Request: fold
Amino acid sequence: MSGPSVADPEEERPAAPAPCRVPGSAHAGPDGWRRATAVAVLVPCAVTLALGLWGLDRGTLWRDEAVTAQVAGRTLPQLWDLLGTADAVHGLYYALMHGYGALVHGLFGLPLSNGTVLRLPSVLGATAAAGLVALLGSRLAAPRVGLWAGLLLAALPSVSHYAQEGRSYALVTAGAALSTLLLTTAVRGGRARSWAGYAAVTAVTAVLHEFAALLLAAHAVTLLVARVPRAVRWRWAAACCAVAAAVAPVVMASQRQSAQIGWLAAPGARDAGHALSALAGPSPVLITVLLALTLLAALCPLPRGGPLGAAAVAVPWAVVPPLVLFAAAQQLPVFTHRYLFFAVPGLALAAAAGAESLVDRVTVRRGRRFPPRRLTVAGAACAAAAFLGQLPAQQHERRPESRADALAAVATLVRREARAGDGVFFLPRYERGVRLAYPRAFRGLTDITLQEEPGPSGTLYGREAPLREIRARLLRADRVWLVIADGVDRTRWFRHSAWYRANWRLLHEVCIQRSWHDGSSGNVALFVRRR
Reply:
């Protein structure tokens, strides 16, 4: 039934004193509110930017970053060919990085394979996400709530992780934050251009990574909880149709490429706990506090200053996408925590709203207001304490071992030990990423299993040669360096791959192992031809 939104019970507390607001709220006038909001937005932006730049160059790329650098460095026709066979879900990101890489190289002569250059867009994406969630908190509750949410987001190690990674996830998170902000604007104003802007930003975000479309499920719950008029629901539904039309080609292409995530399995409770720890932790104390504040925000929502309340926006944003993906992954295994990073700002905003709700409850119980500025500083100090409490985790994120592999270490070992004319044998094929990231280390070596290079072949890692050609090359090589992922021969998907098993047997049939170099980033072994 169409009509005005139903009032939140929290708005009908005649006996309760009005909740205190920081300078710059409605009680301080429009100018004061704008100044307080500007501070609430700019401070988290500055903090996130500083943390993103801290230790940005780890001295190495890891496997996924190497893919970004080498794919974005291809020509646009080569990039288009690749998306027909692999990584369609990252197509827009690769195209954006292609343009960015060309610009940086033209202006400064720096290659995209430079770690700092590669990760800078992600730093800016995380910075934008912190500023946008702070602006959301300021609009939906009070500037101090926005400040707390932005600082809390900046304090999380997961934000540093994805801010310092040359992949799309930080940019996707910024898009999700902007989409949510535009939703609040569209619901409040109702203008067609506001809804068009919401649809456009949400579509771009979903095309940037298709699982960001789960944000629409969160927004659906937000509108349901807020009991918005029917006209608003219809406009939102029209925006959803536009987003679905935009993302449908990416979804269809990625379904044909589902073998790329064949290593994933249906998640269980342990996977859910790992995702929660990776995104909101790793400190159990911090996770407990965040969840408790989120629950408080949901059970005791703040009074609404408009059609949408802070809890109605933040709690679904934090909770709904993980639940939907977890449930869907029981039938189609697609669950991994990095796909859900865009929901983390919702958790930060929900926790900040819960903290404000806690302040309201204490204020009502004691019958007196706390000094607003001191309260604002106290909340910011709690965010700083959350950062300091996880300082070891923050420091770990800036070391090479924070990622699954450190390709520079493997490249250094090969460059030091190999001789011109030696062969190199990558197993599995994604280990070729080290050669693509650090080609100088492999200059003069023969790639035993490669038939066609990645760019011309329209593949991520190149087209593999037939077994008879691999055998002939092994018989011509006196020494062969095996570059192999740690423990890969014990994985389920390796055992089920006839091609990998055949290559493994062929190498050991023609050659004999002479030395083995263990490394956390990969293993390198020297094989010599049997006489």
About this structure: The CA atoms of residues 44 and 150 lie 5 Å apart.
